[in-house]
Amino acid sequence: MKAALIFALALTALPVSAQSPLRIRLLDGKSGKALTPASIRIATMPAETPRYLIPAADPASVLIYLKAAQTFTVSDQFMRCDVDQKPAPNSPAPAPAQYTVADIFAHGAVSSDNCAGPKTKITPATPKPGELVLYVRHATPCEISKNHVSGISFCN
User: Fold this and answer.
1) Domains assigned to the chain
2) How many other C-beta atoms are found inside a 10 Å radius of the C-beta of residue 32?
3) Per-position pLDDT tens, the chain of length 156
């Protein structure tokens, strides 16, 4: 079963163009440690279906292959650290950050980290061409209920 899953992932991860893959890494905004995404969604403009590959040597990153996309957004099961960590009560979730493919390939990008406390010592990631580093954190039960369970809230 595991071999079949790996084979299926490998088939879907074949490059659809000569373009190099774009790497997305998720780092815990509170500790700086790599996080392995259980799910990740990429929305592109113009719309296309990206191909994914999670490298065995680095399971905390995802390689995506895009044919013609100029910009994209990323969503996953974590909460972003580049937004205000104390939003107003009943405020809507922030809009996904939009990234430019050409900029990522040329310079790389690293999101800001508003999750780390003032005493936390995290060495910030350095931008690398072809790589997007996102600081994220695990969602609280309240945030999960707001985002996923209609009509039920575990918030105070």
Assistant:
1) 2-148 (2.60.40)
2) 16
3) 444 334 344 434 443 344 689 999 999 998 889 988 777 888 899 898 888 887 778 878 889 998 888 999 888 778 888 876 666 666 666 677 899 999 999 999 999 888 877 777 788 889 999 999 999 988 777 766 665 555 555 565
